[in-house]
């Protein structure tokens, strides 16, 4: 079987939230990410789909949410992405702890992992998130958004995701097929004694790590859990090669689906985590000017003809603006 072009890393992570305004306020104002797309769940058009990213929506920076208010609280367990980690510049965790104190964010003590300092915290829905201090290279592809957080502390895209799996070995083989390399193993902190965290690295510089941890702890999808993780397959050809390789592993990927800002293939990996393969193009600025991303509700393709109906069924939300927040203070 031909070897597919290795994935550069994570493209986006999509999660489940509750209240849409609370979700918006936290990810834009508290964490300082830019709303680069305000749209709908294309499989459930009565629900928003928010995309939070760096200033330009660079692949590897977008955390996205379906705010399904009627779902119950979820529980992280086996067969899920248990943690999503973001990169922040070295020396910025003091700033983030002070900010979390100011905004009453639930966070834990720092830990060391594979030689890096990690600050674990949770969003208002209980979603487990981490900030990891890294050295930002001169050729860094991400573009920090600085309306709420200064450049020297701003989030710079994904660092990693952690997968909780009952049997990690088939998934580890899959990650190798996708072009990730095993780069280390260490005792997992805060998990069951004896568990080992195994790290895999992709070829890119953003969102390059996937950590795998064995666990049989049960979970359920709901508020505060990850819906799926998407990996970059930059071109259609890359994606077709990867889809073929995934099928060769005995998995059942979908045909390509047009998601308007990227083209996608979905499959459940061996442990039950929903994986997506996503192209780099056409990108979030393909249907809006870069300087006005996220300012209006964008309805892809066939949904535009239903705008009046769809808008009437969605709750009103307001995107935080620094000048508005300052005026309120």
UniProtKB/TrEMBL annotation:
> What InterPro entries does the record tag this protein with?
Extradiol_RC_dioxygenase (IPR052537), Glyas_Bleomycin-R_OHBP_Dase (IPR029068), Glyas_Fos-R_dOase_dom (IPR004360), VOC_core (IPR037523)
Q: Where are the annotated segments for Disordered?
A: 309-329
So which domain of life are we looking at?
Archaea
Q: Which residues form the VOC domain?
A: 9-134, 157-280
What span is annotated as the signal peptide, if there is one? Answer: none
Q: Which Pfam families match?
A: Glyoxalase
Q: What is this protein called?
A: Glyoxalase family protein
């Amino acid at each position: 079987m031909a070897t597919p072009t290795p994935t550069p890393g994570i493209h986006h992570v999509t999660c489940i939230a509750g209240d849409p305004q609370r979700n918006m306020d936290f990810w834009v104002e508290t964490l300082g990410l830019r709303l680069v797309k305000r749209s709908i769940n294309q499989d459930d058009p009565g629900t928003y789909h928010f995309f939070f990213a760096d200033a330009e929506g660079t692949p590897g920076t977008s955390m996205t949410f379906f705010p399904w208010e009627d779902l119950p609280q979820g529980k992280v367990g086996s067969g899920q992405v248990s943690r999503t980690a973001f990169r922040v510049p070295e020396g910025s965790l003091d700033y983030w702890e002070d900010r979390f104190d100011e905004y009453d964010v639930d966070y834990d003590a720092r830990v060391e992992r594979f030689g890096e300092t990690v600050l674990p915290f949770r969003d208002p829905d209980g979603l487990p998130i981490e900030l990891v201090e890294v050295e930002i290279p001169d050729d860094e592809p991400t573009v920090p958004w600085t309306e709420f957080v200064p450049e020297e502390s701003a989030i710079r895209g994904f660092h990693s995701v952690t997968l909780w799996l009952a049997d990690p070995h088939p998934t580890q083989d899959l990650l190798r097929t996708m072009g990730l390399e095993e780069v280390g193993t260490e005792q997992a902190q805060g998990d069951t004694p004896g568990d080992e965290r195994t790290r895999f690295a992709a070829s890119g510089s953003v969102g390059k790590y996937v950590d795998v941890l064995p666990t049989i702890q049960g979970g359920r999808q709901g508020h505060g859990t990850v819906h799926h993780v998407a990996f970059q397959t930059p071109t259609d050809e890359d994606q077709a090669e990867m889809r073929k390789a995934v099928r060769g592993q005995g998995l059942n990927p979908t045909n390509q689906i047009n998601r308007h800002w990227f083209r996608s293939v979905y499959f459940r990996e061996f442990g039950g985590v929903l994986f997506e393969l996503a192209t780099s193009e056409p990108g979030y600025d393909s249907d809006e000017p870069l300087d006005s991303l996220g300012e209006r509700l964008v309805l892809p393709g066939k949904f535009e003809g239903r705008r009046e109906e769809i808008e009437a069924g969605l709750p009103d939300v307001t995107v935080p603006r620094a000048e508005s927040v300052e005026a309120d203070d």
